[in-house]
Amino acid sequence: MPPLPQIDISPFLPPSSQTPSPLTPTTNALNRALTPPGPGFFYLTHHSIPTSLTTALLSQTRHFFSLPPAQKAPLRRRNPGDGTGDGARGYQRLGENVTGGQRDRHEALDWYRPVLAGEPLPPPLPLPVEEEGQGQEQKHEDVGGRREPPYALLQGMNAWPSDDEPAGFRDLFEGYVERMLELGTAVVRAMAVALGVGDGEVFVRATRESWWVMRAIAYPALPMGRAAADDATGEGEGEGEIGCGAHTDYGCVTILLMDETEGALQVWMEGEGWVAVPPVPGAFVVNVGDMMERWTNGIWKSTRHRVVHRGGGGMRVSVPFFFEPDFGAWVEPLEECVERVGERRFDGVRYGNWLEGKVRGNFGDG
Fold it and tell me: How far is CA 107 from CA 76, 77, 205, 217, in A?
């Protein structure tokens, strides 16, 4: 039996125009999954994303990472000031990503929300304007910004393969982003209703211009028989011995599409240790990140997880979509959650500043 609960999101999907009751099975299941001792992860079902789309995404991901290195190299991630680099977007070679100070054994291609014409180019970010305990929505003039290199951190352009290899790659993934933004909005609306905070739209308002991140990732199989250094404690692995080291996600909500590989994704469960999360056909794996833990004042937890792909089966591929707050969103514990806990456990942060600090520590020299 899969170790995670399955949660039906369909009551919160369009075209329903009525806010579902807080007592619906969906919201009750969310609270059970995300409130300790719940796992902090769940399978998302009845999400309306067709299997034909997810199958094509995984197939194209596998095709891209099977290309010769010379065809992937033009898309490589570069540091700010190095050509078109912004320190985050683009292709990362095996061992270029770093988690907990150690190199991860995977390749990846990362995309972020584009910086659109007419938008300010942070940093700097303004201080929050407080209004009834919430950061007021950031306003700006339609003055645009620099759209040619050199780019500041996170302010560059997304990198895409040429049209002929793999064919249709960009259109497929950009179409998927639009579907994920709709699904992410439904998920955070359901979460607000489950928590019983405000009018149920508090997270929707903070993600209207979500600074989303999407990754396509390939994990080569690790050698069989090599025991993990952290099976008992959940702490660091040996250098090069793990697909992705133990971590929590630092944003809002992660919606993971993964292939049929068994046993690779592992979630840390208190009292049980590392628990493998097998794929469930037609379902996404969803977890909350550090920003949702902060909003809920620790009522919901951002759970550590890792990827350890050993043995047969060849390359494992996945496409995680990170549905994040707006770059300028002010994230602090909601008053209802502070009252419920009895104390304020977190200070407020500007999400863009938080993200920049995390990205600066994500990479080593490939």
Answer: 11, 11, 34, 6
Tokens coding 43: 């399978």
pTM here? 0.90
* Confidence at residue 365, expressed as pLDDT on a 0 to 100 scale: 57
Query: What is the per-residue DSSP string for 159-182?
Result: ----TBTTBTHHHHHHHHHHHHHH
Residue 277 pLDDT: 97
Q: Residue 222 contacts by C-beta under 8 Å, 6 or more apart in sequence?
A: 105, 241, 242, 243, 308, 309, 310, 311
pLDDT under 50: residue ranges of the chain: 17, 123-145, 227, 229, 234, 236-237, 366
Count Cβ atoms below 10 Å from residue 127 Cβ, excluding itself.
9
Q: What is the model's pLDDT at position 162?
A: 85
Rounded CA-CA distance 61/257 in Å is 11
Beta strands in 196-289 (DSSP E): 213-219, 244-247, 253-258, 265-269, 273-276, 284-288
**Distance, CA of 234 to CA of 275 (rounded, Å):** 11
Report the C-alpha gap between 339 and 119 in whole angstroms. Answer: 37
CB 278 within 8 A of CB 4: no
- As a whole number of angstroms, the distance between CA 220 and CA 227 comes to 17
R_g of the chain, CA atoms, integer Å: 20
How crowded is residue 5: how many other Cβ atoms within 10 Å of its Cβ? Answer: 15
| 3-class state of residue 33 by DSSP | helix
Q: What is the pLDDT of residues 42-58, one digit of tens each?
A: 999 999 999 999 999 99
Query: What is the C-alpha to C-alpha distance for residues 192 and 322, in angstroms, rounded to an integer?
Result: 18
Rounded distance between C-alpha atoms, residue 319 and residue 179, angstroms: 14
Q: Render pLDDT for 115-131 as a digit per residue (tens, 0 to 9).
A: 876 666 554 444 444 43
**Which pLDDT score, from 0 to 100, does residue 137 have?**
38
Q: What is d(CA 194, CA 192) in angstroms, rounded to the nearest whole number?
A: 5
